[in-house]
Amino acid sequence: MNNNCFPPKRIIAQFENEGGVSAAGGDDELEAIKQKKMAELQKAAAERQALSSITQPVHLSDSNFAGETARYPLMLVDFWAPWCGPCRMVAPVIDQLAKEYAGRVVFGKVNVDENPIISNTFGIASIPTMMVFKAGKVVDVMIGAMPKGQLEIKLKQHLGNSGSTIYG
After folding, report:
1. Which of 60, 75, 87, 110 is catalytic?
2. What is the pLDDT along the chain (168 residues), one digit of tens a residue?
3. Is residue 72 one of the residues assigned to a domain?
């Protein structure tokens, strides 16, 4: 009788032949997992850097609206027109917030005169109208010109406890 605690080599060989995990196979599997995780981290870092470089509003149109609003975890969209006085008052505030919140919130602008389809889709009747989107879905609507402080309060509510960045 064998008093050894390890199974005989023939049992180990049979286990490996039947699809069991060998020590070498385990190392290969761990290395593959490590490589996959490293690629995911590198991709996330590249996305983070790309989003942090968006320091001015993205120009949205009927053709790119759905894709752009879904692309970013948190986006404030300003519906405006060049002839609208209150819209012209809000524009520099939006531009300033885009710089200050880069990497946390992406800002977009829709000229309602040039993009009637998306304006009608959201029932834009008064401008400026600002909508907050999370992953492509409307989560808040603000109608009328608002001072910077009020917009920041709204943005901070949507940034909430999920962290100070849009990356989770």
Report:
1. 87
2. 555 556 566 666 666 666 555 555 578 888 888 888 888 777 766 666 666 678 899 999 999 999 999 998 999 999 999 999 999 999 999 999 999 999 899 999 999 999 999 999 999 999 999 999 998 999 999 999 999 999 999 999 998 844 444 433
3. yes
CATH code of 100's domain:
3.40.30.10
Burial class (CB within 10 angstroms; exposed 0-12, middle 13-18, buried 19+) of 48: middle
**Which residue from 128, 151, 125 is spatially nearest to 81, judged by alpha carbons?**
128
Tallying the residues shown for the chain, one arrives at 168
Q: Do 128 and 77 touch, CB atoms closer than 8 A?
A: no
The catalytically annotated residue of 74, 76, 84, 131 is 84
Q: Looking at the structure, tell me whether residues 85 and 147 fall in a common domain.
A: yes
Pairing type for strands 129-134 and 106-111 reads unpaired
**Are residues 71 and 131 located together in one domain of the fold?**
yes
87 is catalytic: yes
Asked if the structure places residue 103 within a domain, the reply is yes
Q: Does residue 84 have an active-site annotation? A: yes
